[in-house]
Amino acid sequence: MRIAFIILAHKNPAQLHRLLTRLQHPNIDCFVHIDRKCKIEDYAEALSLPQVYTITPRVKVTWAGWSIVQATLNGMEAIRQSGKSYTYITMLSGQDYVIKTTEHIYQTLIQPGNRQYIGLISEKDLKPMMSKVDNYHLVECNFPGKYKFASLLTKILPARKTPFGLKIYSGSGWWTLTQDCVNYLLDYIRERPQLVRYFKLTWGSDEFIFQTILMGSPYKEAVTGYDLHYIDWGNDRSKGQNHPKTLGVEDVELMLKSDRLVARKFEMDKDPALLDKIDQELKRLFP
């Protein structure tokens, strides 16, 4: 039995290499997408590690744009094309890091089950964020005045309606899902170009599309409403907190005490000793 990770990376090749090194295990495969804006040769050492596979085609990723979803879908397709069977597939960023030993992560995710670990925010917290889907957004476009033009589109065009009568749900873009669930999402999106067109005009579509599909699917009852990441969003994400805290040494005790498997986000260049401390603590806690 195996588990897999999809990892989206866009900076810090050395940090990605360290994450992939920590995930080395005979029954763990890592499928890595390197942002097309990056020089692939800078990541050669990381991508040459055993059981690490480069996701193609590579996508030029724009923050909050559809391109994040497209890179994820390419990762899902790469896993399917591998022909391998996995109990769980976990979505990571290159700025994540493990906060449990690799063996603990493997033993946790190797257990067969139907639970789908994906975050959901409450309807109360979702309400002030609905402009991200109700308004027209041209995230992937790059021309002067694009925000004013998008605002004009929102005023003059018909109100946006979610295709297929789906109700909008939202949560973190990071998740741990069973392979059959991942394949369901991949097929659902690929077979519905109308849904793709809708979410291409959404702000932060990666934090809406998967939750929205799953909560209108046979997997609804299996959705946990939380993922397996330790992330510090501050006291109230509904106030518009778009970026999680960059974790520091002061967060180590809390993150290691949590039941989460990985944490984000880290900047190894700014605090190189932090990941060393996590490794040292894990050796002490899991001798």
From TrEMBL:
Pfam families: Branch (PF02485). It is found in: Endoplasmic reticulum membrane; Golgi apparatus membrane. It comes from the Bacteria. One of its GO terms (biological process) is chondroitin sulfate proteoglycan biosynthetic process. The keyword Protein transport does not apply. It is a single-pass type II membrane protein. InterPro entries: Glyco_trans_14, XYLT. GO terms for molecular function: metal ion binding; protein xylosyltransferase activity. One of its GO terms (cellular component) is membrane. Keywords: Disulfide bond, Endoplasmic reticulum, Glycoprotein, Glycosyltransferase, Golgi apparatus, Membrane, Metal-binding, Signal-anchor, Transferase, Transmembrane, Transmembrane helix. PANTHER family: XYLOSYLTRANSFERASE OXT. This is Peptide O-xylosyltransferase. It comes from Chitinophaga niabensis.
